[in-house]
Amino acid sequence: MTPSTARLARPRAAHLVLVAIAAAAIAAGVASARDAAGPTNTSTPTITGVALTGNTLQASPGTWNPADVTVAYRWLRCDPAGGDDSSDKTCSMIDGATRQTYTVASADIGKRIRVRVSASNRGGTTEATSAATSVVATPGGKPASSSAPTIAGSPVVGSKLVGSPGTWVGDAPITYSYQWLRCDPAGNACNPISGRTKSEYTPVDNDVGKTLRLKVVARNSRGNADAFSTATGPVQDSPNNGVNTLPNGEKSVDAKDVPKDQRLVVDQVTFSPNPVTSVNETISVRIKVKDTRGNVVRNAIVFVRSTPKVTSGGDHAPTATDGWVQYGLQPEKDFPIKNSYSVQFYVKAYRANDPTLGGIYGSRLVQVATKKP
Fold first, then answer.
1. Residue 287 in contact with residue 297, Cβ under 8 Å?
2. pTM above 0.85?
Protein backbone atom coordinates (compact mmCIF):
# COMPACT_ATOMS: atom_id res chain seq x y z
CA MET A 1 0.00 0.00 0.00
CA THR A 2 1.42 3.40 -0.94
CA PRO A 3 1.54 6.22 1.63
CA SER A 4 -1.22 8.08 -0.20
CA THR A 5 -3.45 5.00 -0.08
CA ALA A 6 -2.80 4.60 3.65
CA ARG A 7 -3.81 8.20 4.25
CA LEU A 8 -7.12 7.51 2.49
CA ALA A 9 -7.77 4.27 4.43
CA ARG A 10 -7.45 5.83 7.86
CA PRO A 11 -10.32 8.34 7.37
CA ARG A 12 -12.41 5.56 5.85
CA ALA A 13 -11.89 3.35 8.90
CA ALA A 14 -12.70 6.23 11.24
CA HIS A 15 -15.89 6.87 9.30
CA LEU A 16 -16.99 3.23 9.72
CA VAL A 17 -16.35 3.39 13.46
CA LEU A 18 -18.51 6.52 13.75
CA VAL A 19 -21.32 4.83 11.77
CA ALA A 20 -21.20 1.80 14.08
CA ILE A 21 -21.34 4.03 17.18
CA ALA A 22 -24.31 5.95 15.77
CA ALA A 23 -26.17 2.72 14.94
CA ALA A 24 -25.59 1.40 18.45
CA ALA A 25 -26.89 4.66 19.92
CA ILE A 26 -30.03 4.48 17.80
CA ALA A 27 -30.64 0.86 18.82
CA ALA A 28 -30.16 1.77 22.47
CA GLY A 29 -32.61 4.64 22.07
CA VAL A 30 -35.21 2.34 20.51
CA ALA A 31 -34.76 -0.20 23.33
CA SER A 32 -35.00 2.57 25.93
CA ALA A 33 -38.22 3.90 24.36
CA ARG A 34 -39.67 0.42 24.31
CA ASP A 35 -38.80 -0.15 27.99
CA ALA A 36 -40.22 3.27 28.90
CA ALA A 37 -43.62 2.21 27.63
CA GLY A 38 -44.15 -0.14 30.58
CA PRO A 39 -46.16 -3.39 30.52
CA THR A 40 -49.56 -3.67 28.81
CA ASN A 41 -52.22 -6.10 30.01
CA THR A 42 -53.49 -8.26 27.14
CA SER A 43 -55.61 -10.73 29.15
CA THR A 44 -57.06 -9.86 32.55
CA PRO A 45 -56.27 -11.86 35.71
CA THR A 46 -58.57 -14.73 36.68
CA ILE A 47 -59.55 -16.54 39.88
CA THR A 48 -60.15 -20.27 40.21
CA GLY A 49 -61.66 -21.98 43.23
CA VAL A 50 -65.02 -21.96 44.99
CA ALA A 51 -66.02 -18.86 46.97
CA LEU A 52 -66.96 -20.74 50.14
CA THR A 53 -65.52 -20.06 53.60
CA GLY A 54 -62.43 -22.14 54.24
CA ASN A 55 -61.67 -22.73 50.55
CA THR A 56 -58.49 -21.51 48.85
CA LEU A 57 -58.74 -19.30 45.76
CA GLN A 58 -55.95 -19.28 43.17
CA ALA A 59 -55.05 -16.23 41.08
CA SER A 60 -53.69 -16.32 37.55
CA PRO A 61 -51.87 -13.09 36.60
CA GLY A 62 -53.30 -12.86 33.09
CA THR A 63 -50.98 -12.12 30.19
CA TRP A 64 -48.75 -9.09 29.68
CA ASN A 65 -46.78 -7.48 26.87
CA PRO A 66 -43.87 -7.80 27.17
CA ALA A 67 -44.10 -11.13 29.01
CA ASP A 68 -40.97 -10.47 31.11
CA VAL A 69 -42.59 -8.68 34.06
CA THR A 70 -42.59 -8.97 37.83
CA VAL A 71 -46.09 -9.44 39.27
CA ALA A 72 -47.54 -8.70 42.70
CA TYR A 73 -50.98 -9.61 44.04
CA ARG A 74 -53.52 -7.79 46.19
CA TRP A 75 -56.82 -9.46 47.12
CA LEU A 76 -59.93 -7.29 47.37
CA ARG A 77 -63.19 -7.66 49.30
CA CYS A 78 -66.05 -6.13 47.28
CA ASP A 79 -69.70 -5.24 47.77
CA PRO A 80 -72.15 -7.90 46.53
CA ALA A 81 -73.58 -5.47 43.96
CA GLY A 82 -70.11 -4.46 42.80
CA GLY A 83 -69.28 -7.48 40.67
CA ASP A 84 -68.62 -5.28 37.65
CA ASP A 85 -66.65 -2.48 39.34
CA SER A 86 -63.20 -2.62 40.91
CA SER A 87 -63.20 0.97 42.18
CA ASP A 88 -62.36 1.88 45.77
CA LYS A 89 -66.04 2.74 46.28
CA THR A 90 -67.06 -0.92 46.07
CA CYS A 91 -63.85 -2.84 46.90
CA SER A 92 -61.35 -2.62 49.75
CA MET A 93 -57.98 -4.29 50.18
CA ILE A 94 -57.83 -7.33 52.45
CA ASP A 95 -55.10 -6.84 55.06
CA GLY A 96 -52.09 -9.08 54.47
CA ALA A 97 -53.61 -10.80 51.40
CA THR A 98 -50.71 -10.37 48.97
CA ARG A 99 -49.98 -13.92 47.84
CA GLN A 100 -51.12 -15.72 44.70
CA THR A 101 -53.58 -17.73 46.81
CA TYR A 102 -56.18 -16.58 49.31
CA THR A 103 -58.19 -18.58 51.84
CA VAL A 104 -61.76 -17.33 52.11
CA ALA A 105 -62.58 -16.09 55.64
CA SER A 106 -65.77 -15.61 57.60
CA ALA A 107 -65.38 -11.84 57.14
CA ASP A 108 -65.93 -12.40 53.41
CA ILE A 109 -69.44 -13.90 53.76
CA GLY A 110 -71.90 -11.89 51.68
CA LYS A 111 -69.09 -10.15 49.78
CA ARG A 112 -67.33 -10.87 46.48
CA ILE A 113 -63.60 -11.42 46.04
CA ARG A 114 -61.39 -9.99 43.30
CA VAL A 115 -57.63 -9.96 42.81
CA ARG A 116 -55.61 -6.99 41.54
CA VAL A 117 -52.33 -7.75 39.79
CA SER A 118 -49.51 -5.21 39.47
CA ALA A 119 -47.04 -5.94 36.68
CA SER A 120 -43.72 -4.09 36.67
CA ASN A 121 -40.71 -3.70 34.40
CA ARG A 122 -38.11 -0.97 33.83
CA GLY A 123 -40.77 1.17 32.14
CA GLY A 124 -43.12 1.29 35.11
CA THR A 125 -46.04 -0.54 36.74
CA THR A 126 -49.49 -1.36 35.37
CA GLU A 127 -52.48 -2.79 37.27
CA ALA A 128 -55.28 -5.10 36.11
CA THR A 129 -58.16 -6.54 38.14
CA SER A 130 -60.00 -9.84 37.80
CA ALA A 131 -63.74 -10.34 37.55
CA ALA A 132 -65.50 -10.88 40.86
CA THR A 133 -66.27 -14.28 42.37
CA SER A 134 -69.75 -15.30 43.38
CA VAL A 135 -70.99 -13.87 46.66
CA VAL A 136 -69.10 -15.73 49.38
CA ALA A 137 -71.24 -18.32 51.16
CA THR A 138 -70.81 -21.15 53.66
CA PRO A 139 -70.82 -24.81 52.55
CA GLY A 140 -74.32 -26.26 52.33
CA GLY A 141 -75.35 -27.06 48.78
CA LYS A 142 -76.17 -23.60 47.43
CA PRO A 143 -74.62 -22.96 43.98
CA ALA A 144 -71.12 -21.51 44.05
CA SER A 145 -68.88 -20.69 41.09
CA SER A 146 -65.61 -22.62 40.91
CA SER A 147 -64.44 -20.96 37.68
CA ALA A 148 -65.82 -17.78 36.17
CA PRO A 149 -68.07 -17.64 33.09
CA THR A 150 -66.23 -17.14 29.81
CA ILE A 151 -66.93 -15.40 26.51
CA ALA A 152 -65.66 -16.91 23.26
CA GLY A 153 -65.57 -15.12 19.93
CA SER A 154 -64.50 -11.75 18.57
CA PRO A 155 -65.88 -8.46 19.98
CA VAL A 156 -66.62 -7.10 16.53
CA VAL A 157 -69.95 -5.71 15.31
CA GLY A 158 -71.87 -8.51 13.60
CA SER A 159 -69.61 -11.30 14.95
CA LYS A 160 -71.35 -13.71 17.35
CA LEU A 161 -70.10 -14.14 20.92
CA VAL A 162 -70.77 -17.37 22.80
CA GLY A 163 -71.01 -17.41 26.59
CA SER A 164 -70.29 -20.35 28.87
CA PRO A 165 -71.57 -20.50 32.48
CA GLY A 166 -68.20 -21.62 33.82
CA THR A 167 -68.18 -24.39 36.40
CA TRP A 168 -70.27 -24.56 39.56
CA VAL A 169 -70.61 -26.69 42.67
CA GLY A 170 -73.78 -27.33 44.68
CA ASP A 171 -76.71 -29.71 44.87
CA ALA A 172 -77.87 -30.92 41.45
CA PRO A 173 -79.70 -30.03 39.33
CA ILE A 174 -78.35 -26.52 38.73
CA THR A 175 -79.95 -24.30 36.07
CA TYR A 176 -78.48 -21.15 34.55
CA SER A 177 -79.75 -17.82 33.25
CA TYR A 178 -77.76 -15.15 31.43
CA GLN A 179 -77.53 -11.38 31.19
CA TRP A 180 -75.15 -9.51 28.86
CA LEU A 181 -73.66 -6.29 30.21
CA ARG A 182 -72.28 -3.25 28.36
CA CYS A 183 -69.31 -1.72 30.22
CA ASP A 184 -66.87 1.14 29.87
CA PRO A 185 -63.55 0.54 28.03
CA ALA A 186 -61.90 -0.60 31.28
CA GLY A 187 -64.60 -3.21 31.93
CA ASN A 188 -66.31 -1.29 34.76
CA ALA A 189 -69.55 0.73 35.11
CA CYS A 190 -71.56 -2.10 33.51
CA ASN A 191 -75.27 -1.95 32.67
CA PRO A 192 -77.59 -4.75 31.50
CA ILE A 193 -78.33 -4.81 27.75
CA SER A 194 -82.10 -4.93 27.48
CA GLY A 195 -83.47 -8.25 26.24
CA ARG A 196 -80.06 -9.92 25.85
CA THR A 197 -80.60 -12.88 28.16
CA LYS A 198 -79.37 -15.85 26.10
CA SER A 199 -75.92 -17.46 26.10
CA GLU A 200 -75.11 -15.92 22.70
CA TYR A 201 -74.88 -12.26 21.74
CA THR A 202 -73.95 -10.41 18.54
CA PRO A 203 -72.45 -6.94 19.16
CA VAL A 204 -74.20 -3.95 17.57
CA ASP A 205 -73.14 -0.41 16.66
CA ASN A 206 -73.94 0.87 20.18
CA ASP A 207 -71.27 -1.45 21.57
CA VAL A 208 -68.37 0.05 19.57
CA GLY A 209 -65.65 1.26 21.95
CA LYS A 210 -67.32 -0.45 24.91
CA THR A 211 -66.47 -3.79 26.53
CA LEU A 212 -68.88 -6.62 27.31
CA ARG A 213 -69.30 -8.96 30.26
CA LEU A 214 -71.62 -11.90 30.86
CA LYS A 215 -73.48 -12.34 34.14
CA VAL A 216 -74.61 -15.90 34.92
CA VAL A 217 -77.14 -16.75 37.65
CA ALA A 218 -77.12 -20.36 38.88
CA ARG A 219 -80.12 -21.79 40.75
CA ASN A 220 -80.90 -24.99 42.64
CA SER A 221 -83.18 -26.07 45.47
CA ARG A 222 -80.85 -24.42 48.03
CA GLY A 223 -80.86 -20.96 46.49
CA ASN A 224 -79.07 -18.98 43.81
CA ALA A 225 -75.76 -17.23 43.17
CA ASP A 226 -74.24 -15.30 40.30
CA ALA A 227 -70.83 -14.84 38.70
CA PHE A 228 -69.33 -12.51 36.09
CA SER A 229 -67.03 -13.15 33.15
CA THR A 230 -63.96 -11.06 32.52
CA ALA A 231 -64.52 -8.20 30.09
CA THR A 232 -63.95 -8.54 26.38
CA GLY A 233 -61.67 -6.11 24.62
CA PRO A 234 -63.29 -2.94 23.30
CA VAL A 235 -65.84 -3.79 20.60
CA GLN A 236 -64.58 -2.89 17.13
CA ASP A 237 -66.57 -1.79 14.13
CA SER A 238 -66.86 -4.37 11.38
CA PRO A 239 -63.80 -3.91 9.14
CA ASN A 240 -64.24 -3.65 5.39
CA ASN A 241 -61.30 -5.89 4.49
CA GLY A 242 -61.67 -8.42 7.29
CA VAL A 243 -58.27 -7.56 8.83
CA ASN A 244 -58.02 -5.96 12.28
CA THR A 245 -54.79 -4.46 13.59
CA LEU A 246 -54.55 -5.19 17.32
CA PRO A 247 -52.95 -2.84 19.89
CA ASN A 248 -49.86 -5.07 20.03
CA GLY A 249 -49.41 -4.79 16.24
CA GLU A 250 -50.65 -8.29 15.36
CA LYS A 251 -53.02 -8.73 12.42
CA SER A 252 -56.30 -10.50 13.18
CA VAL A 253 -58.23 -12.30 10.43
CA ASP A 254 -61.50 -14.21 10.49
CA ALA A 255 -61.24 -17.98 10.05
CA LYS A 256 -63.65 -17.79 7.12
CA ASP A 257 -61.19 -15.51 5.27
CA VAL A 258 -58.14 -17.80 5.59
CA PRO A 259 -57.31 -18.99 2.03
CA LYS A 260 -57.64 -22.69 1.29
CA ASP A 261 -53.91 -22.98 0.56
CA GLN A 262 -53.10 -21.93 4.16
CA ARG A 263 -53.49 -23.81 7.44
CA LEU A 264 -54.42 -23.03 11.03
CA VAL A 265 -51.67 -23.36 13.62
CA VAL A 266 -52.12 -24.13 17.34
CA ASP A 267 -49.57 -21.49 18.30
CA GLN A 268 -49.62 -21.45 22.12
CA VAL A 269 -51.20 -23.55 24.86
CA THR A 270 -50.95 -22.65 28.57
CA PHE A 271 -52.30 -24.52 31.61
CA SER A 272 -53.15 -23.22 35.08
CA PRO A 273 -52.43 -24.69 37.54
CA ASN A 274 -49.30 -26.35 36.22
CA PRO A 275 -48.56 -28.83 37.69
CA VAL A 276 -52.04 -30.15 38.52
CA THR A 277 -52.23 -31.35 42.13
CA SER A 278 -55.92 -32.18 42.67
CA VAL A 279 -58.84 -33.73 40.78
CA ASN A 280 -61.11 -31.24 42.54
CA GLU A 281 -59.54 -28.18 40.89
CA THR A 282 -60.63 -26.91 37.49
CA ILE A 283 -57.81 -26.74 34.94
CA SER A 284 -57.77 -23.47 32.98
CA VAL A 285 -56.32 -23.94 29.49
CA ARG A 286 -55.72 -21.02 27.11
CA ILE A 287 -55.09 -21.67 23.41
CA LYS A 288 -53.90 -19.24 20.74
CA VAL A 289 -54.50 -19.88 17.04
CA LYS A 290 -52.63 -18.36 14.09
CA ASP A 291 -52.51 -19.15 10.40
CA THR A 292 -49.44 -20.12 8.41
CA ARG A 293 -49.03 -16.49 7.33
CA GLY A 294 -48.52 -15.42 10.97
CA ASN A 295 -51.91 -13.73 11.48
CA VAL A 296 -53.89 -14.42 14.63
CA VAL A 297 -57.21 -16.04 13.74
CA ARG A 298 -60.57 -15.14 15.26
CA ASN A 299 -63.66 -17.39 15.10
CA ALA A 300 -61.58 -20.54 14.69
CA ILE A 301 -63.26 -23.43 16.53
CA VAL A 302 -61.03 -25.11 19.10
CA PHE A 303 -61.30 -28.65 20.47
CA VAL A 304 -59.14 -29.93 23.35
CA ARG A 305 -59.29 -33.36 24.99
CA SER A 306 -57.01 -35.37 27.24
CA THR A 307 -55.67 -38.66 25.90
CA PRO A 308 -56.89 -40.91 27.40
CA LYS A 309 -60.06 -39.00 28.27
CA VAL A 310 -59.73 -38.08 31.93
CA THR A 311 -61.23 -34.55 31.77
CA SER A 312 -64.55 -33.09 30.66
CA GLY A 313 -65.18 -29.89 28.69
CA GLY A 314 -63.23 -28.27 25.88
CA ASP A 315 -65.22 -28.26 22.65
CA HIS A 316 -66.78 -25.95 20.06
CA ALA A 317 -65.78 -22.51 21.40
CA PRO A 318 -64.50 -19.90 18.89
CA THR A 319 -61.33 -17.86 19.32
CA ALA A 320 -61.55 -14.16 20.16
CA THR A 321 -60.16 -11.26 18.13
CA ASP A 322 -56.67 -11.84 19.58
CA GLY A 323 -56.72 -15.51 18.56
CA TRP A 324 -57.12 -16.81 22.13
CA VAL A 325 -59.81 -19.05 23.62
CA GLN A 326 -60.06 -20.27 27.21
CA TYR A 327 -61.60 -23.44 28.60
CA GLY A 328 -62.18 -24.74 32.10
CA LEU A 329 -61.49 -28.49 32.07
CA GLN A 330 -62.78 -30.58 34.95
CA PRO A 331 -60.58 -33.56 35.95
CA GLU A 332 -62.51 -36.81 36.28
CA LYS A 333 -62.01 -39.30 39.12
CA ASP A 334 -59.43 -41.30 37.16
CA PHE A 335 -57.27 -38.25 36.36
CA PRO A 336 -53.79 -39.43 37.41
CA ILE A 337 -52.10 -37.33 40.09
CA LYS A 338 -48.53 -38.66 40.22
CA ASN A 339 -45.08 -37.22 40.70
CA SER A 340 -42.92 -36.94 37.56
CA TYR A 341 -45.95 -37.61 35.36
CA SER A 342 -47.73 -35.67 32.62
CA VAL A 343 -51.16 -35.92 30.99
CA GLN A 344 -51.30 -35.42 27.23
CA PHE A 345 -53.93 -33.33 25.45
CA TYR A 346 -54.91 -33.28 21.79
CA VAL A 347 -55.71 -29.77 20.55
CA LYS A 348 -57.37 -29.09 17.19
CA ALA A 349 -58.23 -25.74 15.60
CA TYR A 350 -60.61 -25.85 12.65
CA ARG A 351 -63.04 -23.77 10.63
CA ALA A 352 -66.78 -24.20 11.03
CA ASN A 353 -68.37 -26.28 8.25
CA ASP A 354 -65.03 -27.62 6.95
CA PRO A 355 -64.81 -31.44 6.47
CA THR A 356 -63.77 -33.30 9.62
CA LEU A 357 -60.48 -34.47 8.12
CA GLY A 358 -60.07 -31.68 5.57
CA GLY A 359 -60.11 -27.95 5.23
CA ILE A 360 -57.52 -25.78 6.94
CA TYR A 361 -57.44 -27.39 10.39
CA GLY A 362 -54.27 -27.64 12.48
CA SER A 363 -53.58 -29.83 15.51
CA ARG A 364 -51.00 -30.35 18.21
CA LEU A 365 -50.21 -32.63 21.17
CA VAL A 366 -49.39 -30.85 24.44
CA GLN A 367 -49.07 -31.97 28.06
CA VAL A 368 -49.47 -30.73 31.62
CA ALA A 369 -47.51 -32.04 34.58
CA THR A 370 -49.15 -33.57 37.65
CA LYS A 371 -47.81 -33.70 41.18
CA LYS A 372 -48.96 -35.14 44.47
CA PRO A 373 -49.69 -32.39 47.00
1. no
2. no
